[in-house]
Design a protein that fits this description.
By secondary structure, this protein is of the alpha/beta class. The chain is built from 14 helices and five strands. Strand 3, helix 5 and strand 4 form a beta-alpha-beta unit. Bound molecules: zinc ion.
């Protein structure tokens, strides 16, 4: 395990995933550690960090109240990535191959060298080849001595049912909105675009994809223009939306996105009126939002939102 993947903290420190942290900690406190877990969650929600913490808590010989001590030679060897009883399987190219699983099986065929159990972590478990997954199945269940498997995935639907049925499934929460925004802004994306994308989807990878799509920014510009048109001419302008969509490269496929963007636009206008400005999405459009907020009544905006939903 890489040093930077490991965090030195107690379970309470995992503020983004309190449910998962409590569940894992309780499994240790109540001695109900499962043979195999499947950690399911979007990229960046902390699956590997919690897997490392769990491995430490399981292997540490001086754990107190389920918390690893962070100081014994087990904890230190996990931190430095060379604990003989913790096995980490990462992608080899685009997949996890049968040879990697065979090697793991071989390593597990020896009793834990230093502690009372073996722990293995398979990152991107959905990327196992069918052969690799079938090979894993042979020893995933009913190990002869204490082995704990931690499978990590962003795509539970791509996990074989036979694997699923042998794992305790642990769902991770999505990251809070502001954290997702901060992550994508730090990657260089334009914040108003990021805020829209992170409202439309809670999945960080999907939001990133939206930010990378050129049309997404175009759609937003179209929406801002449309909101001005609606203000001048009334909501029947919405019937031109399909026309507008068809003129874009993606044609009608972009329509749902455009409607989402319009909804968040009206949400902004509404939030401006009720003085919740810190929650605005289109933070670069304060002037236009203010102008529309001053001209429209709340009920008019709510009606507008209703109309947009009708088109969705
Ligand atoms: Zn320790």
């Amino acid at each position: 395990m890489e040093n930077n993947e490991v965090v030195n903290m107690e379970w309470d420190g995992f503020v983004d995933q309190p449910k998962v942290a409590t569940l894992l900690r309780n499994s240790i406190l109540h001695k109900r550690v499962a043979h195999a877990y499947l950690f399911v969650g979007s990229q960046g929600v902390g699956k590997m960090k919690l897997a490392a913490q769990y491995a430490k808590a399981l292997l540490c010989q001086q754990a107190e109240a389920g918390n690893p001590c962070q100081q014994c030679h087990h904890c230190q060897r996990i931190d430095s990535g060379n604990h003989p009883d913790l096995h980490l399987i990462l992608l080899d190219g685009a997949s996890i191959k049968i040879d990697q699983i065979r090697q793991l099986q071989k390593a597990l065929s020896f009793r834990a060298a230093e502690s009372s159990r073996n722990v293995y972590i398979i990152e991107h478990a959905d990327k196992m080849t069918v052969q690799a997954a079938n090979s894993l199945l042979k020893f995933l269940e009913e190990p002869v001595y204490q082995i704990t498997a931690l499978l990590l995935t962003e795509h539970i639907h791509q996990i074989l049912p036979t694997i699923l049925s042998r794992c305790q499934i642990v769902y991770f929460d999505e990251l809070p909105f502001e954290k997702r925004v901060a992550t994508l802004v730090s990657e260089g994306f334009f914040e108003p675009i990021v805020r829209n994308a992170c409202k439309i989807t809670a999945d960080l990878a999907e939001a990133r994809e939206l930010c990378q799509t050129e049309q997404f920014a175009q759609y937003r510009n179209l929406m801002i223009q449309l909101s001005e048109d609606i203000l001048e001419k009334g909501s029947y302008v919405l019937v031109t939306l399909q026309e507008k969509a068809l003129k874009t490269e993606q044609g009608n496929q972009g329509l749902p996105l455009m409607l989402d963007l319009l909804l968040y636009w009206y949400r902004d206008v509404l939030f401006f009126q009720i003085d919740r400005k810190s929650e605005l999405v289109n933070i670069d459009q304060m002037e236009a939002i203010q102008r529309q907020a001053l001209r429209c009544s709340k009920s008019w905006i709510l009606k507008g939102i209703e109309v947009v939903y009708f088109f969705k």
